[in-house]
Amino acid sequence: MPQLGLPRIVGTYTNQLTVRLFIASGNVNSDLQFVKASVSRAREILAPYNIGLAVIPAGGMSDKEDIGVFSHNGPLFVDAADAYGRDGTSAPGAMTARTEVGRLISQVPRPPVIVLFGNSTSTRARGYTVENSGYDSFCAISLAGSQSKVTMLHEIGHCANLQHYMACRDITDRTTQDDRDVMAEVTDAKADLRDKFSGMELGLLRGASFMSQLD
Ligand SMILES: [Zn+2]
Questions:
Q1: What separation in Å is there between the alpha carbon of 46 and the centre of ligand 1?
Q2: How is the chain split into domains, by residue range?
Q3: Distances (CA, A) of 106 to 110, 111, 168, 180, 214
Q4: What is the distance in A from the centroid of ligand 1 to the CA of 179?
Q5: Can you list the alpha helix ranges (DSSP code H) found in the chain?
Q6: Tens-digit pLDDT string for the chain (215 aa)
Q7: Distance from the CA of 182 to the center of ligand 1, in angstroms?
Q8: C-alpha of residue 1 to centroid of ligand 1, in Å
Q9: Can you tell me the distance from the alpha carbon of 104 to that of 212, in angstroms, rounded to the nearest whole number?
């Protein structure tokens, strides 16, 4: 029964991105620590923008289990060429896990974004967002390979329709990427250094379907 070990809601902020967290059943303590660190780092990055991150348990706020568990232990996403032969990612495992957790979650009017922590064999991606699947956009974060505490917030950004090009000072010129932007595509060495959002990105975050306003 995984506990977050952090407050579910830091009540200081009117605007709260709402998330539901799930982890593969084969997880070990260090995996749970990574989930916790990802939540803490996301809150630190969002705080200067007056945005919180609220963790909604699968079964609702009366559920004692902060982090839901799914049994799918295969890779959530893998490296795969796309239809044009370009480097890409495919995520049948994430779909399997998403279907599984769909049976666990209580329905609410503004559904939180779903974040799945599990295995991956990808050597390119630390996380992956599944769009156009029939579900609201949701994301998968790798527990294998190199980890970054900022990956979860980056993928949550994708779920709010933030794009990599928005990390560029000139959005038509990829060479102007600000490596400190959360949506920047960076190497492992720079991944944890990302800590800010552009005005365009903030506008999309504030309008996300999973943004909630607390009094
Ligand atoms: Zn990305």
A1: 18
A2: 15-213
A3: 11, 9, 38, 36, 20
A4: 13
A5: 29-46, 92-102, 151-159, 188-191, 199-206
A6: 689 999 999 989 999 999 999 999 999 999 999 999 999 999 999 999 999 999 999 998 899 999 999 999 999 999 999 889 999 999 999 999 999 999 999 888 899 999 999 999 999 999 999 999 999 999 999 999 889 999 999 999 999 999 999 999 999 999 999 999 999 999 999 999 999 999 999 999 999 999 998 87
A7: 9
A8: 30
A9: 21
What is the CA(185)–ligand 1 centre distance, in A? 6
- Residue 215 CA to ligand 1 center (angstroms) comes to 32
Say how many Å lie between the CA of residue 107 and the centre of ligand 1. Answer: 28
Distance 61 CA to ligand 1 centre (A): 30
Q: CATH topology for 15-213?
A: Collagenase (Catalytic Domain) (3.40.390)
Decide if 170 contacts 164 (C-beta within 8 A).
Answer: no
